[in-house]
C-alpha cells in the first residue's frame, strides 16, 4: 500500500519514511524543501537501498495532491508538512495559519474528492499548555494556546474532529512530545536551517564547534535541578508510532473515526539531565552557561502513554542515551558550515 507523506524530507517525516518502508508500505513523499534539504532524499536512498518516490510541491496547492492521487493508489496520508518555530509563529502569524491550516483544509478537500479517508495528523503536546498535573493524559484539558504555532495545532485538531464527525474520514492526531536523535546509520537526522531553536541541535552544534556555547534557559524553575522538564522521545520510536497508528486505522476500518494519542516515553528529563547524558554517552564536555528563562516555556511536561500502548500496541523502546548517541553520530558526520 502507498502512503502519502507530506513533509517527508523533514526531520520526523524522513524517519517515518524509513519505518513505513520497513513495515512493507510504500511512501510517496511530498515536500517543498522550505525547511529541509534535497540531500535528505539521498540519505534515505542509501538507507533503503532504492529510490524514493518524490514530488516537489507546496501543500497549499490542490493540483499537486490531485496529481499524486491520480498517479498512485494512495491508501492513507501522514501530514507532517508544517512550520514549527514558536518564536517565528508570533512574528509571522498569517504564514503559520496559511501553511499549517490552509494546507490541512486543501489536503482534506482533495482527499474527499478522491475518497481517501485515512489520515494521521502531526499534533503536539503544546496543546496542553502549562498542565496542572503531570503526566498529561489525552483527557487532560487543552489550555489556551500560548503561541500561534500552538494555536495551529489546536485548531487543526478541532477541524479534524469536526470533519470526521460527519464525513467518511478515519483520522488520528498524534500529540508528539520532544523528538530527538537520528537514524542509527547517521545518514538522516535533524537539519535545522540557521540558528537552532531546539535544545538537542543546539547542543550537538556546540559540541561540533559550530556554536561557542549554549545557554540553559533558566535554572530557577520549581523542578529538582531548577531546569525545565520535557519528555524526549527518540525520533525512530516516534516514526514507528505512525506505522502503529496507520495499522490501527486499517484495522478499525471505520468511517467517521477520530482519536488522539500521546506519543512520548512516559518519562520527564530536565535540560541539565539531557546535557549531562549527552556528555556522558559521547565522552564530551559541552560548554554551557545559565541564562534567563525563555518566554513561553512551560515548566514541566511529560506524557502518560497508556492509551497508545493499549490501543495502538505501541511503546517507545529506545532510551534518552540512545537518542543522544545517535544525535551526535549524525552531527559529527555532517560537514562543518
Ligand atoms: C517546542 C514546542 C513544541 C514544538 C517544538 C518544535 C511549546 C511549549 N513547545 O518545544 O510544541 O513541537 O518546540 O520546535 O511550544 N532550551 C535551552 N537552551 C536552548 C534551547 C532549549 O535551555 O538553547 C530548553 C528550553 O527552555 C526547554 C527545553 O530546552 O526547556 C526544550 O526546548 P525545545 O527543544 O525548544 O523544545 P520545546 O520548547 O519543549
Question: Layout of helices and strands, plus pairs?
Answer:
Elements: E1 2-6, H1 11-22, E2 26-31, H2 39-48, E3 53-56, H3 62-71, E4 74-79, H4 86-91, H5 93-113, E5 118-124, H6 148-166, E6 170-176, E7 178-180, H7 199-207, E8 214-217, E9 229-230, E10 232-234, H8 235-252, E11 257-263, E12 269-270, H9 271-282, E13 288-291, H10 306-312, H11 320-333
Parallel strand pairs: 1-2, 1-4, 2-3, 4-5, 5-6, 6-11, 7-10, 8-13
Antiparallel strand pairs: 9-12
The structure holds uridine-diphosphate-N-acetylglucosamine.
Describe it.
- This protein has 337 residues and is an alpha/beta fold.
- It contains 11 helices and 13 strands.
- Helix 1 (11-22) links the parallel strand 1 and strand 2 (26-31).
- Helix 5 packs parallel to helix 6 (148-166).
- The structure holds uridine-diphosphate-N-acetylglucosamine.
- The number of helices is 11
Low-confidence stretches: none
Average pLDDT taken over every residue:
97
CATH superfamily of one domain: NAD(P)-binding Rossmann-like Domain
Strand percentage? 15-25%
- Summarize the biggest pleated sheet: 7 strands, parallel
From N to C, what is the helix and strand string? EHEHEHEHHEHEEHEEEHEEHEHH
Structural class: alpha/beta
Distance between the termini: 39 Å
What fold name goes in the CATH topology slot of one domain?
A: Rossmann fold
Radius of gyration: 19 Å
Strand order of the largest sheet: 3-2-1-4-5-6-11
Helix content: 40-55%
Count of extended strands = 13
In the CATH hierarchy, the architecture of one domain is 3-Layer(aba) Sandwich
- Small ligands present: uridine-diphosphate-N-acetylglucosamine
The gross shape turns out to be globular
**What is the CATH C level class of one domain, in words?**
Alpha Beta
Amino acid at each position: 500500500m502507498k502512503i502519502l507523506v507530506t513533509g517527508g524530507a523533514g526531520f520526523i517525516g524522513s524517519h517515518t519514511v524509513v519505518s513505513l518502508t520497513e513495515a512493507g508500505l510504500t511512501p510517496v513523499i511530498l515536500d517543498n524543501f522550505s525547511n529541509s534539504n534535497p540531500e535528505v532524499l539521498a540519505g534515505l536512498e542509501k538507507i533503503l537501498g532504492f529510490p524514493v518516490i518524490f514530488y516537489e510541491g507546496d501543500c497549499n496547492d490542490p493540483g499537486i495532491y490531485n496529481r499524486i492521487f491520480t498517479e498512485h493508489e494512495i491508501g492513507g496520508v501522514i501530514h507532517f508538512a508544517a512550520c514549527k518555530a514558536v518564536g517565528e509563529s508570533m512574528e509571522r502569524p498569517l504564514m503559520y495559519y496559511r501553511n499549517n491550516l490552509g494546507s490541512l483544509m486543501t489536503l482534506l478537500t482533495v482527499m474527499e474528492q478522491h475518497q481517501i479517508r485515512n489520515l494521521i495528523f502531526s499534533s503536539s503536546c503544546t496543546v496542553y499548555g502549562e498542565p496542572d498535573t503531570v503526566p498529561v493524559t489525552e483527557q487532560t484539558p487543552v489550555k489556551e494556546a500560548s503561541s500561534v504555532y500552538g494555536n495551529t495545532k489546536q485548531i487543526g485538531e478541532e477541524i479534524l474532529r469536526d470533519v470526521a464527525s460527519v464525513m467518511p474520514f478515519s483520522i488520528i492526531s498524534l500529540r508528539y512530545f520532544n523528538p530527538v536523535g537520528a537514524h542509527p546509520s547517521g545518514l538522516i537526522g535533524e537539519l535545522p536551517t540557521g540558528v537552532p531553536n531546539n535544545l538537542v541541535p543546539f547542543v550537538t552544534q556546540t559540541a561540533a564547534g559550530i556554536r561557542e556555547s549554549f545557554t540553559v534557559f533558566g535554572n530557577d524553575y520549581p523542578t529538582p535541578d531548577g531546569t525545565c522538564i520535557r519528555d524526549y522521545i527518540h525520533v525512530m520510536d516516534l516514526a514507528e508510532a505512525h506505522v502503529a497508528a496507520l495499522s490501527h486505522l486499517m484495522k478499525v476500518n471505520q468511517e467517521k473515526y477520530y482519536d488522539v494519542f500521546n506519543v512520548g516515553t512516559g518519562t520527564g528529563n530536565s535540560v541539565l539531565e539531557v546535557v549531562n547524558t549527552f556528555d556522558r554517552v559521547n565522552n564530551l564536555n559541552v560548554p554551557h552557561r545559565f541564562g534567563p528563562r525563555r518566554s513561553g516555556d512551560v515548566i514541566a511536561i511529560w506524557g502518560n502513554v497508556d492509551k497508545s500502548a493499549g490501543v495502538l500496541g505501541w511503546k517507545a523502546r529506545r532510551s534518552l542515551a540512545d537518542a543522544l548517541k545517535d544525535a551526535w553520530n549524525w552531527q559529527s558526520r555532517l560537514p562543518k558550515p
